[in-house]
Amino acid sequence: EWTMGNVIEEQVEAIRAKVGNRRAICGLSGGVDSAVAAALVQKAIGPQLTCVYVDHGLMRKGETAQVEKDFVAATGIKLRVVDAEKRFLDALAGVSDPEQKRKIIGREFIRVFEQAQAEIVAEAPGDQPVEFLVQGTLYPDVVESGGGTGTANIKSHHNVGGLPEDLEFTLIEPLRQLFKDEVRMVGAELGLPEEIVHRQPFPGPGLGIRIVGEVTKDRLDLLREADAIAREELTAAGLDRDIWQCPVVLLAEVRSVGVQGDGRTYGHPVVLRPVSSEDAMTADWSRLPYETLARISTRITNEVAEVNRVVLDVTSKPPGTIEWE
Ligand code: XMP
How much distance in Å is there from the Cα of 282 to the middle of ligand 1? Predict the structure, then answer.
């Protein structure tokens, strides 16, 4: 029988058998998938697991603080936070191609995990080796990265097609057969709080794949502000559960003429991409209320000086993917 309780039991047993008395690390992204994967593995091997949160500088506003606070409070998990902003931004300098960005981000994630692995071993050298890396890969990630059954490669998800060839970890991917709604059920069954279980999806490569063009610190700061405003207004309007997610995308290499304050501006547009979906394999654009769109637009153009236009993406998936890159 296929119940979430059974899925958990089966996975816990499989993880214990695979790991034995060795150790594992788990990359936490702040999203649902990695949180549920971590909670599941913790249930299986307890203190043999250390979670690693990589602050790659591509996070949304407030994200790092939230993971440090909420997730640890909910699970009591061992957490290391690695400040890797410089490393990621240096690696991404000069890169505009979406697949190249994804590969670089995937590679840098692994390098940071390897470093964390070395540190954990150095701190407790007598212990068992840190051999396993837990990832919150879902079934749709596998399919759309070309790892599924004869499906074309659409995007290299940072935790599937984006992994380096010389990976030294053995992967544990306990959610690999599940869809997002099932992952949420597993999370609830494991006792994770609402705020984590019902968080909207956020991609591992973060805002790095929501800047069309080169990723720079200035552009990230700007997009972070715009994104925070959109999220705030969607929450205030009570729409969080109605939409699947709403990426805000910065068209960093497009400029248009505007008039703001006392004069002419030549700024960038941001795109709102609100979508409704069951599993992210297909999606429809969300018919958000005009008043909410108006508030978001007014606030972004008032509060984020470099943005002088807000546009709405009215494309389904297919033909458009949810993220722009
Ligand atoms: P697309 O853009 O492919 O996105 O329609 C489908 C869903 O997957 C999320 N997404 C990712 N999640 N790592 C992730 O963990 C990734 O590399 C990645 N790329 C896209 C996206 O936000 C949407 O929910």
Answer: 12
What are the E-state strand segments in 214-285?
A: 248-251, 256-260, 263-272, 275-276, 284-285
SS3 2: coil
Residue 53 lies in a domain: yes
Query: Ligand 1 pocket, 64 CB below 6 A?
Result: no
Ligand 1 proximity of 49 Cβ (cutoff 6 Å): no
Distance from C-alpha of 75 to C-alpha of 250, rounded to nearest angstrom: 35
The SS3 call for residue 93 is coil
What ipTM was assigned to the predicted interfaces of this complex? 0.99
The ligand 1 atom at the shortest distance from the C-alpha of residue 283 is: 5
pLDDT in tens, 69-117: 888 888 889 999 999 999 999 999 999 999 999 999 999 999 999 999 9
Q: Is the CB of 204 under 6 A from ligand 1?
A: yes
Distance (angstroms) between ligand 1 centre and the Cα of 284 equals 15
- Shared domain for 190 and 215, answered yes or no, is no
Output the residue whose Cα is nearest ligand 1's atom 20.
Answer: 203
**203 part of a folded domain:** no
Together in a domain, 19 and 166: yes
Q: Determine what percent of the chain falls in helix, strand and coil, rounding each to the nearest 5.
A: 40, 20, 40
Q: Are 308 and 265 in contact (CB under 8 A)?
A: yes
